[in-house]
Design a protein that fits this description.
Radius of gyration: 34 Å
Number of strands: 3
Largest sheet: 3 strands, antiparallel
Number of helices: 2
Shape: elongated
Distance between the termini: 81 Å
Helix content: 25-40%
Structural class: alpha+beta
Order of helices and strands: HEEEH
């Protein structure tokens, strides 16, 4: 079965968002999470973790025995863009390409598969049934 965005249901769209967010946390926050876990396993008083929000920046640092071993900072707008924009773009694409219930699906040649319908209506009048029209010209004053 081919993976087609056209046939996704809302559940599959939400699952793709969840997979994206888990991957984003693993890639962007993975090193900070691992370092934080390592520092929490040290004896008490040998390490500290600091996090803060100041002037639109998110700051995170880890200090071990008086030495800063990890430091990271990013703007809040960057976090929002990485968190929201790819899922919203995927949602918009999904809205435009999905197969909607009650609409004909695309045929093999890319044209909508419509029913045969009724026969074409006959012409209302044959060419010979036309009434001739007299043209009258008015003189110019």
């Amino acid at each position: 079965m081919a993976l087609s965005l056209r046939r996704w249901k809302p559940k599959q769209l939400l699952m793709s968002w969840a997979v994206y967010w888990v991957g984003l946390v693993a890639v962007k926050l993975g090193p900070a999470i691992l370092e934080s876990w390592r520092v929490t396993q040290l004896p008490e008083g040998h390490g500290s973790i600091n996090a803060g929000f100041d002037n639109g920046l998110i700051n995170y640092s880890i200090v071990e025995d008086g030495v800063k071993t990890f430091a990271a900072s990013t703007s809040f707008s960057t976090v929002l863009l990485w968190t929201l924009m790819p899922p919203m773009a995927l949602w918009l694409i999904w809205l435009f390409v999905r197969v909607r219930p009650g609409t004909p699906s695309l045929g093999a040649r890319g044209q909508a598969a419509l029913s045969e319908g009724t026969a074409r209506a006959e012409e209302p009048h044959a060419k010979d049934d036309r009434v001739p029209v007299e043209r009258v010209q008015t003189p110019n004053p």
